[in-house]
Each structure stands twice: as structure tokens, then as C-alpha cells.
Amino acid sequence: MFHLFLLIFISITNVYSSNYRPVVLMHGITSNAAAMEDIARWIRSLYPEIYVISIEIGNGKLDSYLLPLDIQVEKFCQIINSNSKLRQGFNLLGYSQGSIIVRGAVQRCSLPVYNLITLSGIHQGVFGIPYLLQLPIELRDLLTKYAYETPIQNAISPANYWRDPEQLDRYYSNCHFLPDINNERDNIRNEIYRENILKLNSFVMTYSDIDEVIMPRQSGLFMGYMKNSLEIETWNNSRQFTEDLIGLRTLWEQGKLYTFVSHVKHQDVTHEPNKDFLFQNILPFFNNTIE
């Protein structure tokens, strides 16, 4: 019922506004662009004539876990920069593994993103058996035993954000992707990454409190396991907060950081069981126009 009221409200308040900012969607692992069609359809139902595109990188399902994330982000940026409809700016949404692809693209490629939205993200990595089950069985042992070896980093995308609390030093030094975009490496800070995050109008992030795949679930809000422990750090004692590594604390102080908690299984985050949550908390962030 809520989404019906939202539709009526938006129709009244924006009756003269049809030049909505385009929306770019990025799917998760072992998936493809078509998996984001529910969200795309709901956005179009609220905002007439809005341009929505769901990005496919190569062979979506296979390449989502067989291409390292450095390459996936590079290809994502190439697709965006070749699309003339996106040059004046757009809103960007990524789900699951797509959350760090879109964030990495913002930080590395200086894309003209207005609102950045991540659903059930993996900003502080993943660790544990549930996530392994997303992968073909022959890749699971390679990830758990050799995640931080260069050949595995170059061959399996989850290795690029596998954050083993018992091996955090190796994670920081040998994991190719996530420690880089998180600015977690000592003495190697990329100020451009921080500057690009601070250019956002809003950074919206969510996790589900019954997520059965992402561990820890709170990774969606940049909270990971503490060193040598399965205890989850709190927001105000995480390095992202205390050191403001990519500008999250600054965004929070400016009122530009939004966090939400959903209550659905991981595979349902972008589908019908989560529809009311998305209409109430997420879709309003697409209600903006290009002057």
C-alpha cells in the first residue's frame, strides 16, 4: 500500500518534471543484468520516461566470479563513459558484489554520480562458508586455502574481498582490490578516492538482518570482523570511522550518509519480498532531475 501512496505523491509533486537523472544498476555475483529487472521496472513505474540501464560485464554469470574486480571495474567504467545518456550525471545502485564494483567505479573513475546506493553490500568484505556456497565447488577450496596468493587473486573475484580475520595482515598487503578502494593500506592512501566519495549528494547503504549469504551481514555498513575474532566491530570503532579513510565520517557529519536494515533473504533483496522496503526507503533517492 505504501508504494501506491508514494506513486501518487511523486506524480503530484513532479507533474512538470520528466528530466529525471538516469539510473544505472549493477547486479551481484553468479548473476546477470536481467536479475535487476524488478527494480528497474519499479523505478520506471514511479518516474515516467526515466532512463534505467542494468550493466552487463562480459558474460554476466561466469565473468562475475572469474574476472578480477580490477578488470570488472575498468570494464564498468568503459561502459558508462561510452553511454552519452549518462554524461550529465546519474544515480547508481549496486547489489551484493555489485556494491563494491559501483563504489570502486566512483572512486577510481570519477564518475558523475549523484546518489550512490548499495543493497546488501560487501564493503568490509566477506568470510565464511555461506558465501562459498555461491561458487562452483571446485573453487571453494582454492579461496579458503589460497585466497591471498597472486594466481587466485587474478582468477576468482571473491578473493579480491575475502577478509579473513585471522590473516588481516595478508589481506591488507596481498588482497588486490578491497583494501585499495577502502584506503586501508598504511602509507598508501589515495586522496582521490576520498574526494570522489565526498562529491556524492548521498551515499545510501543497506544490509539485511536475516541475510544467509553475506557474513558478516553488517559488511553492508562497512563493519567487519575484528582481528583474530568473529566479533563484529561497531561503526564508531571501525577504521573507516576513526580514520575517515574514504570520507564516510565526513559524509555522516554532513547528513549525507543513510543506512537502512531490511528483513529478507539475500536472494530476495532486489525482488518482490523486499518491494515495500525498497519503495519506502530506496526509490525516493531517484526523485531528482537534471537542470
Low-confidence stretches: 12-16
Q: What is the rounded Rg?
A: 18 Å
User: What percent of residues adopt helix (DSSP H or I)?
Assistant: 25-40%
Q: Mean pLDDT score, rounded?
A: 93
What is the string of helix and strand elements?
A: HEHEHHEHEHHHHHHEHHEH
Largest sheet, order of strands side by side? Answer: 2-1-3-4-5-6
* Distance, first to last CA: 32 Å
Structural class call reads alpha/beta
Shape: globular
Number of strands: 6
Number of helices: 14
Percent of sequence in beta strands: 5-15%
Q: Report the sheet with the most strands, covering strand number, pairing sense and barrel closure.
A: 6 strands, parallel
Highlighted features:
38% helix; 291 residues
Structure description:
With 291 residues, this protein is α/β, with parallel strands linked by helices. Helices cover 38% and strands 12% of the residues. The chain is built from 14 helices and six strands. The protein has helices spanning 2-13, 37-46, 60-66, 69-81, 97-109, 129-132, 137-146, 150-153, 168-174, 178-181, 191-198, 239-242, 248-253, 275-282; strands at 23-26, 52-55, 90-95, 113-119, 202-208, 257-262. Strands 2-1-3-4-5-6 form a six-stranded parallel sheet, sandwiched between helices. Helix 2 links the parallel strand 1 and strand 2. The longest helix is centred in the first third of the chain and has 13 residues, at 69-81. The radius of gyration is 18 Å and the shape is globular. The model is unreliable at 12-16 (pLDDT under 50).
